[in-house]
Write a structure and sequence with these properties.
Keywords: Membrane, Transmembrane, Transmembrane helix
Protein name: N-acetyllactosaminide beta-1,3-N-acetylglucosaminyltransferase
Radius of gyration: 42 Å
Structural class: alpha+beta
Distance between the termini: 81 Å
Shape: globular
Number of strands: 20
Helix content: 25-40%
Number of helices: 17
Low-confidence stretches: 1-18, 39-115, 145-158, 160-165, 171-234
Strand content: 15-25%
Pfam family, one: Glyco_transf_49
Organism: Laodelphax striatellus (Small brown planthopper)
Length: about 625
């Protein structure tokens, strides 16, 4: 075994990495052999007193009965134990004759050797071990210095170090692009290896190997991006940068499909029935945009006109405390049995209520739809002629937790892009395909580094006015006074969109393609702007301590977006119109008192928290 190991490690590639293993085996066996010698010497010298007359010849071996002496206790106080030791005669005789272990007298009795002689021989064995180890190390060093394999190792390590440095730099740049909302393919520079003409054949081969590894890694990365939807993404509107001829929505939009399974969860002081009644159609996460909204059952008359214009997935959170729960179920049945197929196809209903106002009975979501067509559609819908005073929440003086509903609906969306809005705001027709086509074109504004959201201009209509089907029709209504900017008579600064006049004077593009009209910020004159936009679930959520009655329920999110340096990409042809009927400012002392409490909560509690969590930025305010 010893000679086989020496022959193996004497191979010309001893200087290669696996030669290190041979070196370690050499040194381990050598030290083990010498340690065994020392152990045998100490064992027989210090423990055993051997009686030569007890040797019994047995073939090629001898059986040795040894009396064990405890070395300090009177032998009359202990019993003699016998230990049978089998050893080679030649090996033991050599040790005995050398005087290293024991000595013989002329009568055949074996006695202890000289302690001085024993220590001297141990020292020589240790010195011999050190010398042999140095010889083996010197032998290994000569191979590294003389063989090309050793130079290959050194050059490989140097090249690997440069390669790792280049990869770390590229990964840092890639990470920055992802954090800023743009994910791109590795640059060509990261895949090019420059080889100096002065380098020899060996260096060239090492460089070629490194090029092969990098090319393989890049190809693998490209393949994963082509077959997978990507990671979690960065800020709102995150898309990947790819050559336009090769791009698809699945490659550009970083998302993963997930199921809309029903489950019950607790959210602060509220119980939530997530996906209580799910939509029949479930698009891939990159295929559509989800309209996320909230309401109680008295507002569900807005669902049908919303679907007629949206024609895409809707995530709807319904507030149903106490006895309002039963009426909410009746309304869902009515919509699914008597409404258009768009309700069954696109709308997913979630229901939430306070923990102190749980309904007496909660059937399974699929149970309420067990008998389709059982609803009497000749009867008026449940929401018709219902007043706010008839609601359970009004009788119990419960506030409407608007931001709880907003967050439930948004979190439950299964698409990457979402449009968090109010159920009374109807989008312009064709918004989903036009927006996704814009994403697919990868125009320069979408590739900017900052996180971004896509803002829709909002308008109110006079009562009994028909809904505009495109921007040209909307502009005509604004000019004749039948349409105005949203909340113009209630809170002009809350929804005043930057460049709003220029937006109205800019005709849609001749190609009818949606584009980014202007990139705005929530600063200066627009410091209290409450935009409604297409974003993602990576954007900041709404503070659930604020209520609809207390107002200012979206201001804290607006401040967070400003501090995070979000860009507000205003779309040139997309818009929202409120349910017909222009709102005017009305005095409401009770709501004014609640508004004062909300403002105090924001200024004294929420705003200091936001400054700690997100920091501050010049020009940003709640």
């Amino acid at each position: 075994m010893w000679y086989l190991l020496i022959a193996l490690c004497s191979h010309p590639y001893y200087g290669s990495p696996y030669g290190v293993l041979c070196l370690l085996l050499h040194m381990t066996l050598l030290n083990g052999f010498l340690s065994a010698l020392l152990f045998d010497a100490a064992f027989l010298q210090d423990i055993f007193t051997v009686n030569w007359n007890n040797f019994l010849e047995f073939g090629d071996f001898v059986e040795l009965d040894c009396d064990v002496d405890d070395g300090g206790i009177d032998q009359s106080d202990i019993s003699t134990e016998y230990i049978d030791i089998i050893m080679y005669v030649e090996y033991q005789s050599a040790l005995v004759s050398s005087g290293m272990l024991v000595s013989f007298d002329l009568d055949g009795n074996i006695g202890n050797g000289s302690s001085k002689t024993m220590l001297t021989r141990r020292n020589w064995v240790l010195r011999f071990s050190i010398v042999l180890n140095l010889v083996v190390l010197f032998y290994f060093g000569t191979h590294i210095a003389s063989k090309n394999g050793g130079m290959d190792i050194i050059e490989e390590l140097q090249q690997s170090g440069r390669e790792l440095a280049a990869m770390e730099e590229e990964m840092a740049q890639e990470g920055g692009r992802r954090l800023n909302g743009v994910q791109s393919m590795p640059s060509a520079a990261a895949l090019v290896v420059h080889t100096s003409p002065q380098q020899g054949t060996t260096s060239q081969s090492v460089s070629d190997k490194r090029q092969t590894r990098l090319s393989t890694t890049a190809a693998s990365t490209t393949e994963r991006k082509e077959t997978s939807s990507g990671g979690s993404g960065g800020g709102g509107g995150t898309v990947s940068a790819l050559p336009q001829s090769e791009a698809t929505l699945q490659m550009l939009i970083p998302c993963h499909d997930r199921d809309a399974l029903p489950f019950t969860g607790q959210r602060g002081d509220f119980w939530v029935l997530y996906n209580y009644v799910a939509a029949a159609r479930r698009p891939h996460c990159w295929e559509s945009v989800t309209y996320t909204t909230h309401a109680d059952y008295t507002f569900l008359d807005n669902l049908q006109p919303l679907l007629d214009r949206w024609r895409g997935p809707v995530s709807l959170a319904l507030y149903a405390p106490g006895t309002d729960f039963a009426q909410t179920l009746n309304t869902i049945r009515y919509l699914k049995d008597c409404g258009s197929d768009l309700v069954n196809e696109f709308v997913t209903f979630h229901i939430y209520f306070p923990s102190k106002h749980i309904p007496k009975q909660i059937p399974r979501g699929d149970a309420i739809l067990a008998e389709p067509g059982s609803t009497n559609c000749s009867l008026p819908p449940p929401w018709l002629n219902q007043t706010a005073g008839a609601l359970y929440k009004t009788r119990k003086k419960l506030l409407y937790p608007v931001n709880v509903g907003r967050n439930i609906a948004r979190e439950s969306a299964t698409t990457h892009f979402v449009l968090p809005s109010d159920i009374e705001l109807y989008p312009s027709p064709g918004l989903i395909p036009e927006f996704l086509a814009m994403v697919l074109r990868q125009e320069p504004p979408l590739l900017r580094k900052n996180p971004k959201v896509f803002v829709l201009s909002i308008f109110e209509l006079e009562s009994n006015m028909h809904l505009p089907v495109n921007k040209n029709e909307l502009v005509s209504m604004v000019r004749n006074g039948s349409a105005i900017s949203f909340h113009k008579k209630v809170c002009p600064g809350c929804h005043n969109v930057p460049k709003s006049k220029e937006w109205l004077n800019t005709a849609p593009s001749a190609s009818a393609q949606m584009r980014v009209f202007h990139i705005g910020k929530r600063t200066g004159y627009f410091v209290h702007w409450e935009p409604i936009f297409i974003g993602t679930n990576h954007d900041p959520f709404y503070d659930e301590r604020l209520s609809w009655e207390g107002k200012s329920d979206k201001m804290t999110q607006g401040y967070t977006l400003c501090v995070l340096d979000y860009e507000f990409h205003i779309l040139d042809s997309a818009f929202l119109v409120h349910k017909p009927g222009i709102k005017t400012l009305k005095k409401d002392p009770a709501r004014a008192a609640l508004s004062a409490k909300s403002n105090a909560l924001i200024s004294r509690v929420i705003f200091p928290e936001l400054k700690v969590l997100y920091g501050t930025r010049r020009g940003c305010a709640v």
